[in-house]
């Protein structure tokens, strides 16, 4: 069963190609350490951050949040 961090990691690898975590974090307006904590499940995603992630990845919040 997938969770947000798994879905986010999958979308990142599928849609961002060669972008590093730092580059993607910059594009969505967060620090790389914050993005890393999201991917590790150590931090909950804020709604505004989720919206920016979805816009950049061209996906819906439901696609990232559904398991």
TrEMBL record:
Start and end residues of each HTH cro/C1-type domain: 19-64
CDD domains, alphabetized: HTH_XRE
GO MF annotation, one: DNA binding
Pfam families membership: HTH_3
Source organism superkingdom: Bacteria
InterPro entries per the UniProt record, alphabetical: Cro/C1-type_HTH, Lambda_DNA-bd_dom_sf
PROSITE patterns listed in its UniProt record: HTH_CROC1 (PS50943)
Name this protein carries in UniProt: HTH cro/C1-type domain-containing protein
Biological source species: Hyphococcus luteus
Lineage: Bacteria, Pseudomonadati, Pseudomonadota, Alphaproteobacteria, Parvularculales
């Amino acid at each position: 069963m997938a969770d947000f961090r798994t879905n986010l990691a999958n979308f990142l690898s599928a849609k961002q190609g060669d972008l590093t975590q730092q580059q993607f974090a910059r594009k969505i307006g967060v620090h790389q350490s914050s993005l890393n904590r999201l991917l590790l499940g150590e931090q909950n995603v804020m709604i505004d951050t989720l919206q920016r992630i979805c816009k950049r990845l061209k996906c819906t919040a439901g696609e990232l949040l559904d398991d």
